[in-house]
Batch of 2 targets.
Target 1
Amino acid sequence: MAEICPICGLPKELCVCEEIAREQQKIKIYTEKRRYGKTVTVVEGIKSDIDINELAKTLKTKCASGGTVKNGNIELQGDHKKKVQEALMKIGFNAETR
């Protein structure tokens, strides 16, 4: 017997909760200057409904850079605002750069 999602009421295979959560989030992408003049791209506003570690891994692979997850934000080494925005849009997020 298939498991039923407690949020949307659909079987787990057809669950759309994560897709809806992606569309409703406002994600901000910006760069910061850190020590020694290093640039870091920060992806902010990802809620706990999404697996942030898996998303960080995907973005690091897409941008071919290192990075980490700190305080609920994804930090990537270097200036990758355009690449990150395109990648998030393909996945289904509503992302804006500043």
Target 2
Amino acid sequence: MTPDDSRAQYLASGSDAPSDHERLDLIRQVLGEEATWAEPPPLVADGLLAALAVEAAPGLSATPERGSRWPLAAAVAGGMVAVVALVLSTITVLDQERDIVVAMSGTDLEASASGQAAVRSTDAGWWIRLDVTGLSPAPQGKYYEGWVWSDDDDGVSIGTFHLRGGDAPVVLWSGVPLADYPSIWVTLEDEEGGPEASDLVVLTGRLPAPPDD
């Protein structure tokens, strides 16, 4: 049931005021609609303050007139959307400030490939989001493997992927400190091969400065 269907059903019911359960159902339906999240509301902070002031605003009571029932519910739902949008946008900004961005370049094996790796320290280890373009999907029987590499020529695997569904972002993890393993490589591996890195390096990058672990 869409929010418009819910509104029509509610207006036809003849009820003087929506119950708390009905209000929660309406808010849940609004938040579940894709259109609600298509574009954040403009001036989120101002909209949030206005929505939170609904109860104190003159002309809006706990038992509104029939014609004002929907505006009240819409204001409450709008306030909920504003709260969520404000929180999500704040988290995004904070996360971006924590990221270290590593430029990734294709080797002679994949000269048209390029991208970047966003690196972030977490309580579980180093989170690495790899965004690449121009890298061919791994053939059947093969896969790509990410590595962090030290200047002493030691490598540690950080995950595998194949890109056969398109250039979707790939999330990799490192449990070793990147201050000691500042280079990021991607190799092409054979499913029948061993755990060691192959010589088929297709992407390389290096942290601009060794981060603290």
